[in-house]
Amino acid sequence: MNWVPEVASNLASKVDAVLWFITVVSLVFFIIISFVLVYFAIRYRRRQENEETPYITGSHVLETIWTIIPSFLLIVIFAYGFVVYKDMRTPPQDSLEITVTGKQWLWLFAYNTGKTTLNELYVPEGRPIKLVMKSDDVLHSFYVPAFRVKQDLVGGMYTDLWFTPTKAGTYELFCAEYCGTGHSAMLGKVIVMSPQEYEKWEKGEEEKAVSSLPPAELGKKLYTERGCNACHSIDGSTLVGPTWKGLYGHDVDLQDGTKVTVNENYIRESILEPQAQLVKGYTPTMPSFKGVLSDDEISGIIAYIKTLK
Ligand code: HEC
Ligand SMILES: [Cu+2]
Question: From the CA atom positions of the chain, what is the Rg in Å?
């Protein structure tokens, strides 16, 4: 049975140790107190009519004991928690910095090499990573359970967070601050790679290969890579958003009662300003991809949608 999530950062086991310490201390006292409570209830129950309760004025010895022991324990809990907290708030000097932007409702990551990724954070194993984070709109919160880190993103200021990933793999990233209709779809992944793989990824060989793809194939690739597949199906089924099957050339009923025929400009606008022409029956959860997708990429997506008859 998994009591806590997978451990995949240097901070995770420290946080777990504090958690277990507090849990065990609480459990021990819970058992002692419950036991005494039940024992006293039976031992001192009323046995006969008009039995009088003795008048007890107190015991200095007992009161001193039950003040000193819990106070000491609380100080230990505070000190232990503080030491771990301080560690979590102090990124090492040689950390690799990555800029994170949260916005309704996606995550953008910008790396020193000029690369950017959407909803997928790529980091090398064994290297301290410092995330410098900001929000373009409301409060968001960057939360990776396997790393035991959580930090708010705030408009108008930077916040930061650090961790050293200790295990290659893919980990869940959540927004942990309610940020509007699309909050529950504001999900991401953290991909931890070996340092060698990371170096290769940073050089971005595969990225160059993408732009030489035929447009429809580029679009197909972006459909999963940029997370459109979370909300749009290509087989006719309805997810959070309308399916892309048969979308091109089809008449769409809009929220405001008008109708439009899907063409290149409509698709382009839907991607850049999704709230401008809202499709009837859907909530405005689609994030804007302005500044995220280039013109070529948008053309690729249009070409791909055209193939989905
Ligand atoms: C969080 C969910 C979500 C994601 C992610 C998402 N969309 Fe949407 N999309 C929607 C919703 C909901 C609508 C319908 C409401 C509206 O018009 O904004 C929509 C509408 C559209 C439309 C208009 C469809 C129609 O039937 O008129 C297009 C085109 C579109 N999205 C393209 C994209 C592309 C391209 C991506 C990926 C780069 C994407 N969407 C990612 C939720 C999403
Ligand atoms: Cu959010």
Answer: 28
